[in-house]
């Protein structure tokens, strides 16, 4: 079991290794911090909170979002396909004084029926070959009137080396994501692009230079990297989280089960 208080060794570049590396800095990383902030905003906007409102963080990764939801007062469950990440998330919650009880589970075989007021599914659907079945299972797990909040990598034309390395089957064009959500039975509440600033560097590296964007600088503790992260954090917090850009590296959708 990985110790959330230590620095687990990195491995061969797999998804688990990638997420564990991200976890070391995730609390303050501009992208993850602001994505979690948007989830809280959309929960407040689209879900009427009542005592006992139950949320599933599906594909919980290292557990930052689940922990924030607990701290916000939500009755939070969490699940992930990876046993290592489930253990990591549970220990993180325990170290923070909470009990998460995250469990290992496959999104293609969810046992729940009308169990949750909201299901959060961040950066997960692109890792699932049968994403239509995954969306159908999420729909079934929600109570009537419940909402799904999901994020996925945007723009199929940008699919490249990094996507392949971390196990993405696809990137999503807006109309494809909307069609998949509605085909599962959902009523779409909102869909938006997010992270317009990342478009140009990713396009240049993946489509002109035929190489991945060098991300380790993003997690560096150098003064330059910390300063850039702070500037990007302010940009998202004050600008991009409050308007919908015409394009972006990420698509975010909120949908309701009627």
Question: Can you offer a commentary on this structure?
Answer:
The chain is α/β, with parallel strands linked by helices and 258 residues long. It has one domain (15-256): 3-Layer(aba) Sandwich (Rossmann fold), CATH 3.40.50.150. It is 38% helix and 18% strand. It has 9 helices and 7 strands; from the N terminus they run H-H-E-H-E-H-E-E-H-E-H-H-E-H-H-E. A 7-stranded mixed sheet has the order 3-2-1-4-5-7-6, with helices on both faces. Helix 5 links the parallel strand 4 (116-122) and strand 5 (142-153). Helix 2 packs parallel to helix 9 (223-238). The longest helix is centred in the first third of the chain and has 17 residues, at 30-46. The protein starts with 14 loop residues before the first helix and ends with a strand.
Task: Give a brief description.
With 258 residues, the chain is α/β, with parallel strands linked by helices. The chain has helices at 15-23, 30-46, 64-71, 83-95, 131-141, 161-165, 174-183, 199-208, 223-238; strands at 54-58, 75-80, 103-104, 116-122, 142-153, 187-194, 250-256.
């Amino acid at each position: 079991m990985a110790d959330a208080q230590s620095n687990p060794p990195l491995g061969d570049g797999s998804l688990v290794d990638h997420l564990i590396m991200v976890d070391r800095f995730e609390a303050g990383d501009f992208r993850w911090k602001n994505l979690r902030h948007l989830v809280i905003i959309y929960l407040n906007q689209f879900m009427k909170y009542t005592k006992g409102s139950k949320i599933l963080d599906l594909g919980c990764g290292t557990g930052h979002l689940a922990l924030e939801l607990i701290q916000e007062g939500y009755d939070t469950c969490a699940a992930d396909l990876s046993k290592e990440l489930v253990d990591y998330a549970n220990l993180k919650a325990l170290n923070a004084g909470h009990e998460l009880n995250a469990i290992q589970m496959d999104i293609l075989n969810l046992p729940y029926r009308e169990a949750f007021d909201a299901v959060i599914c961040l950066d997960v659907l692109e890792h699932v070959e049968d994403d239509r079945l995954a969306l159908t299972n999420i729909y079934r797990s929600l109570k009537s009137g419940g909402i799904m909040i999901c994020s996925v990598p945007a723009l199929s034309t940008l699919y490249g080396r990094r996507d392949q390395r971390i196990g993405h089957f696809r990137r999503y064009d807006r109309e494809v994501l909307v069609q998949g959500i509605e085909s599962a039975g959902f009523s779409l509440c909102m869909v938006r692009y997010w992270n317009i600033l990342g478009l140009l560097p990713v396009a240049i590296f993946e489509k002109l230079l035929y190489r991945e964007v060098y991300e380790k600088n993003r997690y560096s503790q150098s003064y330059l990297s910390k300063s850039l992260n702070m500037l990007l954090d302010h940009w998202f917090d004050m600008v991009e989280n409050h308007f919908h850009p015409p394009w972006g590296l990420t698509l975010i959708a909120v949908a309701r089960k009627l």
